[in-house]
């Protein structure tokens, strides 16, 4: 019997940019800049791995509570990333999608996100899903509200609410659940990320800070995953 697990979807909590910069006596925003550069590198190496979905936690709903200076710097970096990314994703046949509370982002950023999604919609090698202004509890609540409204309007019967129909109300509709979740920087918590979707995901925590997380470590995790004994989560 072949017990090798195939990894179809990796989700990453890209943590540790601030500490990475602090260690070098640099401002936190320098760490975010290096972190953004690493997003491009890791996305490229993902293509070679055969993984079809990569979901990256770039900015949480809780991250809005950081200082105005830091939030502004992150939004500026995001803006630059969105401007540069089209060429990169088209050359690499990557489809990009965004999940999260979009209305909290500036109109300019929202427009760029939509443009990238539309332009790359037919690309097939990798789906890059970026969680921006994302919070899993908010996502679940908005699914509950949508379902409750359908029931109230007699469009849906209570007995027809299933795990599948619920999943279809989430931002991640149509995306399979992650096989692997990686969190960098040594923290061992989920921080409001994909709570419903990771029910049977295999978890990996590494002390490496996000800007230093590279291809070798990624390969190593995929290899370890392939020989883990999985429960229920298998695609
Ligand atoms: C992750 O790095 C990036 C974001 C949350 C935007 P942090 O900014 O959380 O860095 P640390 O955890 O303070 O080192
Ligand atoms: C989680 O990291 C969010 C992102 C990586 C975007 P945080 O650094 O914000 O999480 P906490 O505050 O340590 O839980
Ligand atoms: Mg952090």
Your description of this structure?
The chain is of the alpha/beta class. 43% of the residues lie in helices and 15% in strands. The protein has 7 helices and 6 strands, in the order βααβαβαβααββα. The protein has helices spanning 17-23, 28-49, 68-91, 107-120, 136-152, 163-167, 215-226; strands at 9-13, 53-60, 94-99, 126-134, 180-183, 202-205. Strands 3-4-2-1-5-6 form a 6-stranded parallel sheet, with helices on both faces. Helix 4 (107-120) links the parallel strand 3 and strand 4. The longest helix has 24 residues, at 68-91. It is globular and about 60 Å long. The two termini are 17 Å apart.
Task: Detail the topology: elements first, then pairings.
Blueprint: E1 9-13, H1 17-23, H2 28-49, E2 53-60, H3 68-91, E3 94-99, H4 107-120, E4 126-134, H5 136-152, H6 163-167, E5 180-183, E6 202-205, H7 215-226
Parallel strand pairs: 1-2, 1-5, 2-4, 3-4, 5-6
Bound molecules: 3-methylbut-3-enyl trihydrogen diphosphate (IPE) (2 copies) and magnesium ion.
One 3-methylbut-3-enyl trihydrogen diphosphate binds next to helix 1.
């Amino acid at each position: 019997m072949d017990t090798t697990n195939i990894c179809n979807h990796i989700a990453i909590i890209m943590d540790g940019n601030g500490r990475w910069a602090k260690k070098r006596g640099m401002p936190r925003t320098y760490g975010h800049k290096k972190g953004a550069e690493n997003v491009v590198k890791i996305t490229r190496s993902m293509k070679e791995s055969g993984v079809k979905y990569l979901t990256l936690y770039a900015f949480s709903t809780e991250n809005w509570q950081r200082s105005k200076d830091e939030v502004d710097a992150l939004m500026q970096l995001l803006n630059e990333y969105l401007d540069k990314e089209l060429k990169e994703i088209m050359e690499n046949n990557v489809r990009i999608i965004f999940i999260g509370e979009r209305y909290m982002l500036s109109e300019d950023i929202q427009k760029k996100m939509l443009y990238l999604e539309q332009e790359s919609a037919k690309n097939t090698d990798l789906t890059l899903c970026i969680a921006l202004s994302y919070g899993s509890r908010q996502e679940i609540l908005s699914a509950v509200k949508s379902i409750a409204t359908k029931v109230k309007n007699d469009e849906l019967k209570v007995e027809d609410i299933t795990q599948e129909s619920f999943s279809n109300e989430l931002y991640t509709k149509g995306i399979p659940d992650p096989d692997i979740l990686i969190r960098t920087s040594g923290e061992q918590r989920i921080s409001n990320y994909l709570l419903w979707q990771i029910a049977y995901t295999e978890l990996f925590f590494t002390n490496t800070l996000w800007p230093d997380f590279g291809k070798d470590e990624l390969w190593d995790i995929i290899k370890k995953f392939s020989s883990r004994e999985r429960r229920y989560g298998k695609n």
